[in-house]
Amino acid sequence: MVIVMKANAPNEVIERIEKKMTDLGCQVHRSEGANYCLLGLVGDTSRFTESQILANEFVDRVIRVQQPFKLAGRMFHPEDTIIKIGNVEVGQNTPCVIAGPCSVENEEQLLTIAKAVKSSGATMLRGGAFKPRTSPYSFQGLGEEGLKLLQKAKEETGLPIVTEVMDTDTFDLVESYADVLQIGARNMQNFPLLKRAGRSKKPIILKRGLSATIEEFLMSAEYIMSEGNSQVILCERGIRTFETHTRNTLDLSAVPAIKELSHLPIIVDPSHACGKWALVEPLAKAAIAVGAHGLMIEVHHEPEQALSDGSQSLKPKRFDHMMKAINEISKVVN
Length: 334
Ligand code: PEP
Ligand code: MN
Fold this sequence. Notes:
The protein has 334 residues and is an alpha/beta fold. It has 11 helices and 14 strands. It folds into 2 domains: 62 residues, Phospho-2-dehydro-3-deoxyheptonate aldolase, domain 1 (Alpha-Beta Plaits, 2-Layer Sandwich), CATH 3.30.70.1140; 251 residues, Aldolase class I (TIM Barrel). It is 35% helix and 18% strand. It has an 8-stranded parallel beta barrel, surrounded by 7 helices. Strands 2-3-1-4 form a 4-stranded antiparallel sheet. It has a two-stranded antiparallel sheet with strand order 5-6.
């Protein structure tokens, strides 16, 4: 960290700051020119609060040298993290594809979709039993009954199951059924939920918040990791912009950017990013082309009847087409 003092900073103020920093265990290197004074701090700067330093009227700027996400960042963990879920490895060159309906609706629906996505080569099954809906009057999910149906679909297909956990109250219940727990975009900064996820032994898919910067996204992963769970899969699912043609704007630049900053696997959900089934395959192909470790895709055999997100769900035949296309792209990229 470097503290840039204002040109008129009195020497006693600079000395006071230097003392405060050395008392906190840092080495301070002062560098003075005709019009500036810089204080270079070496050591663990995590214990002081940047805003306290900035509150000093003679401090011009604070420049961070290291990223604040120590566990999620590449600096102290340069090699890629690979997360194993049964026979599936997330973080490898072979893309992992998590597919299934937005919501678990009934047994026939879930089993039909699960078998279809499995035969097209999906690696995990998704389906929401607790749904974060914008309107309280929309379908909220089947709750535990939905989790039981996911378990049945897993028994029939062998696909590990991914399902969303919305709060700390239902965490133990969802955790007891899921192979991978999803924390949705709306909960990306639900810190008590992130901390609970950090105490879980199960891998977590953390979706990027609707208006979260890449740094905020990685700091949320840091919350989970700081409680002891290092199995975090990041998921770019589109962010809010001025554009209303698509549901969100898929930020594909986040994929190579996150791969530079973090060792954690990063997957892409084009379904929630665009909200339109016709755009899902092109965006899925683009995601694999920019190096995503996998995809999350909503699939429904009768999207016109779907209780949620029918407009962005691929029919099984289109999903099959997409799988063939992304496998070709993956061969070229890797
Ligand atoms: C979902 O995956 O079902 C979902 C609600 O996604 P998001 O949190 O990205 O909106
Ligand atoms: Mn959905």
